[in-house]
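user: Kindly work through both lines:
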Amino acid sequence: MTVRRFTLPALIACLFALPGAAAASYPQTFGPVKGNPADALAKLPIDSFRYDYARHCTKKPTPGALAMVSWLKQHSSGVFWGIMRCEKFGPHNYSLHSDGRAIDWHLDAHSAAGRREAKRLISLFLAPDKLGNEHALARRMGIQELIWNCTAWWSGPGGMEKYSVCYDKKGHKLHVDDTTAHRNHIHIGLNWMGARKRSSFWTHR
């Protein structure tokens, strides 16, 4: 797979699948975004990059996931598609949905409006703040993974990359259904600081 820092997250986030629209293309470095909410928090220390694996299934969403849904409803034209789903991929390998730390936000890659809105959200999450802190809003919200239209970002430097589920070992595009490919929704996964509303965005709202 083509993930730089993490190998398991690609499997952990393998929740859905794809055919249809071509994979989105994003830069490795995102530019500043006007009105970035992270700018208002620039005086606070920036949250560290972190990735927390899911270890089991729980029965209810985390406070941070619910807060993220509320924020998305106010700041995006998409539609909430759910949080909870018990998914086990191996002995100690679970989806973030399993412990209530992942949001599915419906946007359609087959429509121009859906592609524009997804690109806007991803660009906002991964933009630097006014001090140049990389991926400022994602870090402050506690976002550790984004998956959309056969592309993915795992917490750490760099931009969106090819989502390995959509490609074979030689890098050739596979025919995957829209849900697995995340062409009909953005997957937003939170680390435990974000899920518990202890990252800076939630503690200083």
User: Anything to note?
Assistant: DSSP finds six helices and eight strands in the chain. The mean pLDDT is 89. The beta strands are 79-82, 88-90, 93-94, 102-106, 143-148, 151-154, 161-162, 186-190.
